[in-house]
């Protein structure tokens, strides 16, 4: 990464602005670390494409995802965090202070870096899926299943997450239609057995989703059996996509240790990465829980870890 003409040094740089990034900013600002936070391509993160959030503690009436992220941002600002619009486009962790390129035009050097770039749900890529996203189409059954209590739902996917979410939905929805692309699931044997033994989960093998139907909200899903070539529409009120998540960690490839899916590895019980002074929190390093509340908790941990690191360094 060559030096850009415009350069600035900051004490703590936070990359990303979901619950993890903003919580890290709140804690870092209160510790007088003068954090600078860059919001990235999707300020507020995945919660900005969620409608109602009912499972975050402290909001007895529930709250809209985007509104909640505005609250997080305001709180971080009030504590003194410097919140900026812009995206990290390259990093250099080969020597300290570490360098981060913003929008391919400015270089920020930092004594400590907190990565909170999150993850993105993988989608099927159907126009109808995007059009009805938030109106019955969701990539998180644990977040949104509750709204379809007693109704019919479809879920697409064949891995452990899809099986887990189908089982979760089976306790809430009247029937769950599980759409599996191949003639078998990728899920572990124990998860497959649970799904197949659950009376209100119907598994459709060799099935491709053609379209999610409905004007302003989901009313069905049109499917194709790839073997018999038979098309049919199943009436459902919700359509869940459970084909995995992609951590937003591309720019850190080869700079930090990651697992085979691209999630940044952290030392268990901490947010420390394989590079000293670089911390990771939220969904970019958590593929298990992926909830706003756990992301916020790990954002707090990252700020505390960064504070301890800097004070040990005498910064």
Automatic annotation (TrEMBL):
EC number(s) per entry: 1.8.1.9
Cofactor: FAD
Catalytic activity of the protein: [thioredoxin]-dithiol + NADP(+) = [thioredoxin]-disulfide + NADPH + H(+)
A Pfam entry, by short name: Pyr_redox_2
Chain ranges of the FAD/NAD(P)-binding domain: 11-299
Domain of life: Bacteria
Protein name, UniProt field: Thioredoxin reductase
Provenance organism: Chitinophaga chungangae
């Amino acid at each position: 990464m060559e030096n850009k003409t415009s350069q600035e040094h900051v004490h703590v740089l936070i990359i990303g602005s979901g619950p993890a990034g903003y919580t890290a900013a709140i804690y870092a600002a209160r510790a007088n670390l003068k954090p600078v936070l860059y919001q990235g391509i999707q300020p507020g993160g995945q919660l900005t494409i969620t409608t109602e959030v009912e499972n975050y503690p402290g909001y007895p009436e529930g709250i809209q995802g985007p509104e909640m992220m505005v609250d997080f941002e305001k709180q971080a600002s009030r504590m003194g965090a410097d919140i900026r619009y812009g995206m990290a486009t390259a990093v250099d962790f080969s020597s300290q202070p570490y360098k981060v390129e913003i929008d391919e035009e400015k270089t920020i050097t930092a004594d400590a870096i907190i990565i909170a770039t999150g993850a993105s749900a993988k989608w099927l890529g159907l126009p109808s899926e995007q059009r009805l996203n938030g109106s019955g189409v969701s990539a998180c059954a644990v977040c949104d299943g509750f709204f379809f209590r007693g109704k019919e739902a479809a879920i697409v996917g064949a891995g452990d997450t899809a099986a887990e979410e189908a089982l979760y939905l089976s306790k809430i929805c009247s029937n769950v239609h599980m759409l599996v692309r191949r003639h078998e699931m990728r899920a572990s044997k124990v998860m497959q057995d649970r799904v197949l033994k659950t009376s209100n989960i119907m598994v459709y093998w060799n099935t491709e989703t053609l379209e999610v139907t409905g004007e302003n909200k989901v009313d069905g899903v049109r499917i194709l059996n790839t073997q018999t070539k038979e098309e049919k529409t199943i009436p459902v009120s919700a359509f869940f996509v459970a084909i995995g998540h992609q951590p937003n960690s591309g720019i850190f490839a080869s700079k930090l240790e990651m697992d085979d899916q691209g999630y940044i590895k952290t030392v268990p019980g901490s947010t420390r990465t394989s590079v000293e002074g670089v911390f990771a929190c939220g969904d970019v390093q958590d593929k298990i829980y992926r909830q706003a509340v756990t992301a916020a908790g790990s954002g707090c941990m990252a700020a505390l870890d960064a504070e301890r690191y800097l004070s040990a360094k005498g910064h």
